[in-house]
Structures are given as structure tokens and as C-alpha cells.
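Posting for a labmate who doesn't have an account.
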Amino acid sequence: MHRCKYAVNTGEDLVYVAGLFEVSWIQMWALNPTYTAPEAAAAHSNAVINVGHLHTLTKEESVFDVARKFGMSLRQVMFFNADLSNQKPKAWLQALPVSSELCVVPNSCHTSE
């Protein structure tokens, strides 16, 4: 499966998938504008939906920078990018390679303190 994609199982809806990925159903619905009703169950199991946006790093950014930029927690960034999940906390401040792609779910309700 590609980064930021999820293969929906028969009977699952966007509300259920949002719970799996720990985001709101509104965020999940916004990522999939072709769905007319978020509570409508998938009729077949080969449907693929978006669970995030791909963000291409254009400058030296760290996991921490990406999390802060998109209003995500470090845990969420790791969850949506399993290849980063084995990193130690000290690596979260190190720059990732330019042109790397990360899956992000922008959180417009997040405020930084």
C-alpha cells in the first residue's frame, strides 16, 4: 500500500477508518471529497481512500518541524509514517533528506503554545 492510502474493507465507512487512524471523521471526509456520506459503508473491499496528504520536504526539516508545521503530535507523525517509528527521540530534531515524502494530516484546530 502507498503512503497516505488505506484499502477499505467491505462494510467499513469513513467514520470507522477515522477511528483507526485517530483523526476526526471530518478530517477523513475532507481527505476524500468523492464520498457523499461519511457513514456510507464501502460496498466492496478494493476501494482505496486517502488518510493523509503527502508532504515533500523542500528544505531541511525534522520530524519535530513537520509535526509543528501541520499541528500534529510527534506520535501522529510516527503513526502515519511507520518507517520513522523506529527513530529515537534525539533523531526527531535531525533534518530528514530533502525530497523525502511524509504523510501528514493537517490539524487546523491545533494551537501552539
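Reply:
Got it, the C-alpha cells are right above this. The chain has two domains: 5-50, 53-104.
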